[in-house]
Design brief:
By secondary structure, the chain is mainly β. The protein contains one helix and eight strands, in the order αββββββββ. A hairpin with a 5-residue loop joins strand 1 and strand 2. The structure holds zinc ion (ZN).
Length: 129
């Protein structure tokens, strides 16, 4: 997880918040819809007035898979890729950490943990609540 992760104008505020280990989602200022990942348009109403709001970092496992064969060299297996549904509604594609890969179940409560990146940003991963 030490490769360069690209940032653009839409995703920059989200990444900057991770420097302070704050998990955020986009919020539409027109309809109140919350979404992740960051986009130029609201997926609820098509509006373009969007800001970022902090979320609790709590959620539940929506779905997951255990990866046993690395898609490229340098990744240690097995690891768990998951969809986590945040308490606030949006879903993140993330990793589950801190437990044996065979120990996870759907609907399990989780909370955010952080993996540091070399440039000071962090990647949100999730651990058992
Ligand atoms: Zn909207």
């Amino acid at each position: 997880m030490n490769e360069e992760i690209p940032v653009d104008g839409v995703t920059r505020p989200w990444w900057e918040a991770t420097r302070e280990r704050r998990l955020t989602v986009q919020r539409c200022l027109e309809c109140g819809h919350r979404q992740h990942y960051p986009r130029a348009l609201c997926t609820g109403c098509g509006g373009t007035a969007l800001d970022f709001t902090d979320v609790s970092g709590r959620g539940t496992v929506d779905s997951f898979t255990v990866v046993h064969r690395a898609p490229r060299p340098g990744l240690e297996t097995p690891y768990v890729v998951a969809r986590v549904r945040l308490a606030e509604g949006p879903i993140l594609l993330t990793r589950l950490v801190g437990a044996d890969p065979s120990a996870w179940t759907c609907d399990e409560p989780v909370r955010v943990a952080w993996r540091p990146l070399p440039d000071g940003r962090h990647l949100p991963v999730f651990a058992k609540e």
